[in-house]
Give the backbone structure.
Amino acid sequence: MKPFRLPVRLFALVLTLLPVLPAAAASAPKKVLVVTVTTGFRHSSIPVAEKVLAQLAQESGKFTVDFVRQPEGEPRRPGRPRPGPKGPDDPAHQAALKAYEAGEAAFKQAYAAWLPKASAALAQLSPANLRRYDAVLFASTTGDDFPLPDKQGFVDWVASGKAFIGVHAATDTLKSFAPYVRMIGGSFKTHGPQVTVECINQDPAHAACAPLPARWTVFDEIYQLNHFNRANVHGLLTLDRLMLTSDDIAQQKSTPGDYPVAWSRLHGKGRVFYTSLGHREDMWDPAYGDAASRKNSPEVARQFQQHVLNGILWALGLAPGDATPGK
């Protein structure tokens, strides 16, 4: 029996394709899973953030996005009534309190019935499903009871060499789960009124800061943090003072201190990028609202988009930047 031989032309074609196939696989877009589920406060800017993130992915061509969105039917918590001019003993206020207590009881019952829907949505973050992705992005997720299917498994997935990107309220998520807090670099403590601040660009060579001026003026909600340590992160944006109350704003008084705004860090073999900006719609979208209602110019929104985009690309290993802690 004669040995089988490929035709010369077919053999030559196979040899030609061999080096091409790995290169094509290497250049395939990365896959990012964007999560906008909330079990605490829900930001009105989330739909705008979803739209912008999808747009940035498409325009860059370097990554694709899938979304884990809020399940329908989330109950709304009633607001606690405040005493009026006649004080807390006023019969009208007492009646409002009784109505509030009844509404709060109904909310807790409805929330307990809704929470399994959030758990079902977040099942996409199971360790098995995460094998399909290169990065996860939390866009203003909230909730200490945020029902990840495997919290430690998620943190370990990042440490294995994957990427995590957190925007704004990502630090207001899983605040009682210390491994997550250590991974992201801090946890939300409080914030004052939205205010104009001057962000100091700490690392212009980092991709996330390269589009920004040395001092970048924005109007946004500025977080104060717990469990933050400069020795554990690479600073990207910071403040040297902040107006903390309405009176501070009215009197133009600010309190000196350490107010971190954005940073990068390594978690095991994984990369973490976090920015606390992004509370407002006009931070995300240059076309949102009109000139009279906007607090941030279209140029600031475009800069913020590039800040977020380049932070994603850095986390994916597709853009330059340092993560040396303590700088």
Observations:
- The chain has one domain: 29-75+97-315.
- The chain has ten helices and eleven strands.
- Confidence is low (pLDDT under 50) at residues 10-15, 20-25.
